[in-house]
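Tutorial handout. Part one gives the primary structure; part two gives the three-dimensional structure as tokens.
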Amino acid sequence: MIAIIVSAVVLLLILIGAGIYNRIVRLRNNRENAFADIDVQLKQRHDLIPQLVAAVKGYAAHEKETLDRVIQARNGAVSARTIDDKIAAENTLTSALAGLKVTLEAYPDLKANTNFLQLQGEIADVENKLAAVRRYFNSATREYNNAIETFPANVLAGMFGFRREPMFEVAAGERASLDKAPEIKF
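Part two.
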């Protein structure tokens, strides 16, 4: 009878230990998955922002070319001296203005400013997503650290080599600049 009770207690302790161990493993894996989410957002940031910058630069260059063609054609029309030169210059100006008209019809306002605003919005969106996954990572890390440091899990955590993991924090050098209010200059 005592052997059955001892066996039952040992079995219960083993089951409790297995449950605690499995919980710690799940929390560790959740933390690692949370960091993988940070990697995904960092990859998106590294891939997206240069593409957006290149697209905005390309579009702004296109608009600049359209405006430059109109300005050059206008200057050519103003400086033309002979009738043939004036006809040719006015035809060039008409063609340039038609190009500008098509641009304006397709894009009622020249989009460089809008594209730059969109770029800023995309950058802010990526940074917000990155901040959210960093918060989630820190939450998963806190939960994991709490689990391995509280009794009775800390006994098993120590036996199986689970250790406290660091949070995703701002570097010490950056902390001073974050504690200071930003300067706004116009």
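Part three, for discussion. The chain has five helices and no strands. The helical segments are 2-79, 83-106, 112-149, 153-159, 172-179.
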